Fold this protein.
Amino acid sequence: MASVAVAVPRKIEEDSEEDKELQAELKLLVEKITGTDPGLIPSALEMMKYLIKTSTTSMTSVPKPLKYLAPYYDQLKLTHEKMPNDATKKSLADVISLLAMGTAGGEEAKKNRDCLRYCLMGTMKNISDWGHEYIRQLEKEIAQQWNFNCEKSTQQLMPLIKDIMIFNSTHHAEIQGCDLLMEIDLLNDLPEYMAKNNYQRMCMYLHSCSKYVDDVERAKIMKLVREQYARFEEYAKALITAIQVDDSDLVNKIFSTCSDKIVLYQLSFICARHNYVVDLDSDHQYYDQINSILSNSHLSNYFLTLARELDVLEPKAPQDVYKTWLEPVPPRITILGENLNSARQNLASSFVNGFVNAGFGSDKLITIEGGNKWIYRNKDHGMLSATASLGLLHLWDVDGGLTPIDKYLYSTDDFIKSGALLALGIVNCRVRNECDPALALLGDYVATENETLQIGAIMGIALAYAGSHRQDVIDLLLPLVNTAKSMEILGLVCLALGFISIGKCDNEIPQTIFNKIIEMNNTDLLKSAFMRLVGLGLSLCYFRARDGIEVPTEMMNVMEEPFKTTIQTTLLMCAYAGTGDVLIIQELLRIVGEKVEVPKKDKKDKGERLKERKERRGSFTKIKGPRKAEWDYSSGQSMAILAVAVVAMGEDIGVEMIHRIFGHVSRYGEASVRRAVSLAMSLSSVSNPQLSVIDVLTKYSHDADEDVAVNSIFGLGIIGAGTNNARLAAILRQLAVFHNKNPSELFMVRFSQGLVHMGKGTLTFDPLHTDRMLMDSVALAGLLTVMVTLLEPQGLILGQTHYLIYMLAAAMQPRWLLTLDEDLNALPVTVRVGQAVDIVGKAGTPKTIAGIHTHTTPVLLATAERAELATDQYEIVAPTLDGICVLRKLPEVK
């Protein structure tokens, strides 16, 4: 016989004797208040207030006096209405206001805002005595009332708001106070409640809120934060905030106002890392030292100091990276041996050699005796890229790097000479030298008739002066937009102008590029793969301009599809890079979701497409015979996928959400859209090899579509760049075996292996720095250049323009924590390193890192790691221990 479950009623907890006594006492007090003897009311009210204030309860339950008084709520309200206007009536209003905070009045009390209404009728004294929950309810109702009747509310509520703000700022409730003033649009009143002990929490919270509001409100919040940091002499944080909104006037003012030498050095290192141009007065007390730091002339020496400390100065050969002896098939390549492989594999080894030994000044291929033999093992454009790898080897070392490169400038081979010009630009990337060797050596070749030499000169100029906004360099390149004799030169010139003038949309560059695009409208020239570079160059001028792209977006409406959508999407991508703007992401996803209409005249049957694909596969050098350029009608969608990752970059929740969306797109999207998904996923996790991303990209790297596989393999290199990640290294070795007979995929596998071991594990591509508070625009531009070209890999990177890979040099930076003393000499100190923890809005002094390991500087920091000092002998003047930090020696305590 089946058993039947019987529901047993829960035993209702009976009130204790103390509770019954309290109920009886409160009932008696209510009777006195509502009775006919007015003489008993004041003492009864005082007693009732005393019982409420002294009641003890847990944090998760309603205080018992409020619970027991709830049934008398309406009765007390009725009594209040009949009372004459005197102190007793106000005192009763206080009690009713407090009861309305709970469940006493039900939904009707919440709807009528009884808590606030009776508070305003009450004594308006000592409201803080009723605690945080009462204050919070008042804040909620004040915000509702303010929007309901703003003018009247201002006069009535201001005294109450002032009392609430004083309570919040003195009772560790600054966050609620900020929320209240933002809600009622009185944020400008906040500074009067800021003090030395609470301004940091307020500013940190406001700064985090600025990401989620519109542009007008954001500008207001950021202005307030900057002013308060400057007011309390937090110059480093004020500088970071000023850089975020590109307020060059404030940056210059901070440098002129601050008089502390150590702080000035630290400010200079932050600007140097961000490649930010500072207009420093030549009469400044520390002009020479600061100018030296801002020019990044220190970078090479400090980097070699790091390498010595980590004992990684010994150069690595490509074979040491490939580890072909671990592959289950015979190796396909023997470096400098008799078993020569294809030109493509030699080219891959040139790139790997350059990126792995970047900045170390020596290698086992080119800088050795007879190293030029290796260059001649490549052909045509391969020789250009092989020679240019010298620039990576001597990265940042302008004085030491020019001599070994100079001898190749006298070569009779144009490709080698062009590679040397590009190498000169790479050496000068992010470094400013008083002699200005880049312009002196490259300027003569910019307008030459020889297109091969033009390529190296223009690329070199772009890297050497990226982000400098130098007008003389712009004047040198700008005429080439109209005089360029090939689409390749036009694309490179526009890209170079975008790099040099990144984020500065108020000059003649955008107008000149746009006029050129209009000239080419309704011609087959727009179908060229190099038009992607033209569009990117135009868009870089509007980097993080937000609403500033309205005019160029409207101007693009005259163009035909799909070119119009592609350029407009590129503009959106650059204008909102790293903002995390949800509305922009939704707009981009709408573009991805739309069905692409292909005109009938451009439709092809399946047989034609297969034939074209077979022609493309395996062709590394030039495609034989002229091939008519065709429109890719889903190019706007593929660019939109890339743009989603760029906009969401740096915002953890947004990145997690877009990864889910990319999963759907990769299943149901067009081929060119699927091609972009791998790039977008890697761009949202640069130099940060997360397991979830590795798994997805590994799956796509086995895709039947060659372009999807190539981009996924490249994505694996980007997410592991400079990390020496063992899991990624093993996956790439397996892919080398899997794609052993596919030259394009194998080339990319080898290159990605080099990226994973970039700088022997000391470098990173991550554009976010200074505790991920700042986004390096030049670094992101370098990444975007390669990403955009890989949307059409066969026409660009896997064709003859593989030299565009060197634009990644703009994103290369040491992933270090280097501590210096007051004389800017390396200073070993003990630090704790762990996973970064978000402490915005947390009470007390929360831990900023988790999973702590103790090290002695210099140390390498992963993307999501943070450090803090483990010694009390020094203090930091930077907002966080990251990059190069100058420490101040504290006086010894006796």
In short: The chain has 42 helices and eleven strands.
